[in-house]
Amino acid sequence: MGVVEYFDQQVETASRDKLARLQSKKLDAMLKKVFASNPFYQNKFKTAGIALSDVRSVEDLHQLPFTVKKEFEKDQEEHPTFGSNLTEPLENYVQYHQTSGTTGKPLKFLDTQESWRWRGKVACHILKGAGVRKGDRILFPFNFGPYTAFWIMYEGAYQLGNLIIPTGGWNTLQRLQCIIDNQATVIPTTPSHALRLIDTANENNIDIANSSVRILMLSGEPGALVPGIREKLERLWNAKCFDYIGLTEVGTWGFQCTEELDGVHIIESEFIAEVVNPETELPVQEGEIGELVLTNLGRSCMPAIRYRSGDLVKVKKGICPCGRTFRVLHSGVLGRKDEMLIIRGVNVFPNVLANIVESHIQPGDDYQIEVFKEAGIDEVAIKLETKEKGKGGVIQRTIQDEIKSKLNLRMEVKIVPAGSLPKFDFKAKRFVDRRKDKNT
Ligand SMILES: [Zn+2]
Question: Most CB within 10 Å of its CB: which of 139, 160, 169, 353?
Answer without folding.
Answer: 353
